Amino acid sequence: MDSSRDPAISSNADVGAEFEGTETANSAYRTAVPALPRWARLAGTVGWMAPILGFVPLHIPWILGIPFLAHKASFDSWYNGRSNGTEGFPDGIMGVPAGAVYLGILVLLAILGGVLSLGLISPWGLVFPRWVPWLAGHRVPPWFPLTPTVIGSGIMVAYSLTLPIQLPRAIADASPDDPFTLTGALIGLPILLAWTVALPAAGWSYYRRTRRASWRRSTST
Length: 221
Fold this sequence. Notes:
By secondary structure, this protein is mainly α.
């Protein structure tokens, strides 16, 4: 049988050739991206370590209801939906204490932010890795990681700019009625500030590198 005339075989060959062409084009794109500067690698490393190795471990005991670096009585009241902003959920949310839900959302966002920071300095931040369904081997659109980078950076920078006002007030008004101790807040503060600087720095490097690669491809075609 002449396989060259079999439509199914011809179709498979076309798909394979198209995939190989995509792989070649995206490998060329990855090669065209300028090398990662040392400062950007440091920023990206701090950007994923601060939330995942700093923020998340600090919050895990609180999610479990353990008043670590917290005032036990006021923490229990807040955690179980009875004070300090959680009064609207005395029965929890879907059976989960209101405080645990709130902290769980924060931890999830921190993990996603850490993965985002790591992607900004990794090869899989340029071309989707093989384990990503349907997108494996395709170029990552720069807007895909840069959009959450800009939004997250903007939120953290805006919040950090309020700290010179909020921090002295928090120190002056600190009391056992607050769920979290001042010590706990001050431990988390350097983690937040490090992430606030590192994420936009890594994002800026990613933007510059991918823009240069796109420009090189456009001028070479």
